[in-house]
């Protein structure tokens, strides 16, 4: 039976998370204590117990003429002994119906593995979001970094300020996934639980930020970086070099980001499914970006 979650299901939901993603309790606990809402979680129960679940996090798609209501499928998982019975496919269908009923026009998802793209295709999702990836050596970062005097280095910026910067940087990439300020704050907070660092700088009225984490092998993953000027970006690299000790920096960037323009490879990074009987997009997508996908 499929139903919306209840508050007293959180112990079972945490168990599904731990088993499916092989993570300690502190990760699901942080999510369930800070982001969980029963109306955003669908559960497949068998014999009165949770066998599978998914979360429909409220989001938006930037259409160029205003935001379109959407949701982001997150932490979809089925207990190993319950797999192969179609429970997740039924949950995805239920999520599409529930989303459409509450006014969501699109459902977005970032499959955790390449092999899962085919699985989501069977539920009506199509490859949609793009990411530009590149690796920059530390010596190249040092050449680009700016250590100018009088600049605000490694500052604390509020979620509204950073989310506004993110929205500004993604204007060229119509169809990009947008978060509310509250969800932006949660996403970066959740990242810290996983060991990510949010590094922010200011140069006059210009701002830049990067989300960084250790990637092993002497590398640092910069899973998101936004800057509204080349000067702010150069200052950001100085802050990143100061806060991390890596030989290589692996970037995930929007296709049209001003950061290291013209470099890297463009690839698929996420899927979308129109809801509400929509057969085509109400806008013209332009290499849309997902980012901060809690992957």
Description:
The chain is of the alpha+beta class. It has two domains: 2-129 and 269-274, Aminopeptidase; 130-267, Gcn5-related N-acetyltransferase (GNAT) (Aminopeptidase). Helix content is 29%, strand content 31%. The chain is built from eight helices and 14 strands. The strands form two sheets. Strands 1, 2, 3, 4, 5, 6, 8 and 14 form an eight-stranded mixed β-sheet that branches. Strands 9-10-11-12-7-13 form a six-stranded mixed β-sheet. The chain is globular. The model has no long low-confidence stretch (mean pLDDT 93).
How far the N terminus sits from the C terminus, by CA atoms, comes to 28 Å
Largest sheet: 8 strands, mixed
In terms of DSSP E residues, the strand content is: 25-35%
Low-confidence segments, given as residue ranges, are none
Shape: globular
Looking at the structure, the CATH topology of the largest domain is Aminopeptidase
Number of helices: 8
Q: Give me the CATH architecture of the largest domain, please.
A: 3-Layer(aba) Sandwich
């Amino acid at each position: 039976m499929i139903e919306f979650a209840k508050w007293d299901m959180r112990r079972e939901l945490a168990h599904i998370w731990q088993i499916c993603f092989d993570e300690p309790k502190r990760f699901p606990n942080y999510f369930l204590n800070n982001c969980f809402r029963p109306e955003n979680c669908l559960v497949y129960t068998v014999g009165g117990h949770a066998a599978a679940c998914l979360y429909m996090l409220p989001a938006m798609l930037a259409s160029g003429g205003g935001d379109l209501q959407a949701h982001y499928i997150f932490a979809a998982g089925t207990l190993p002994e319950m797999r192969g019975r179609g429970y997740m496919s039924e949950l995805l269908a239920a999520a599409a119906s529930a989303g459409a009923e509450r006014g969501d026009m699109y459902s977005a998802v970032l499959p955790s593995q390449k092999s899962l793209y085919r699985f989501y295709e069977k539920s009506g999702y199509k490859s949609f979001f793009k990411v530009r990836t590149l690796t920059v050596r530390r010596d190249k970062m040092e050449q680009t970094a700016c250590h100018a005097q009088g600049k605000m280095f490694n500052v604390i910026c509020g979620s509204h300020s950073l989310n506004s910067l993110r929205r500004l940087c993604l204007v060229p990439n119509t169809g990009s996934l947008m978060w509310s300020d509250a969800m932006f704050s949660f996403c970066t907070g959740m990242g810290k639980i996983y060991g990510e660092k949010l590094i922010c700088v200011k140069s006059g009225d210009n701002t830049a930020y990067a989300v960084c984490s250790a990637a092993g092998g002497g590398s640092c993953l910069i899973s998101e970086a936004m800057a509204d000027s080349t000067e702010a970006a150069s200052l950001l690299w100085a802050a990143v070099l100061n806060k991390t000790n890596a030989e290589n920096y692996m970037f995930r960037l929007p296709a049209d980001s001003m950061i290291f323009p013209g470099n890297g490879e463009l690839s698929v990074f996420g899927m979308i499914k129109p809801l509400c009987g929509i057969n085509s997009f109400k806008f013209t997508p332009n290499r849309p970006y997902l980012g901060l996908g809690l992957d």
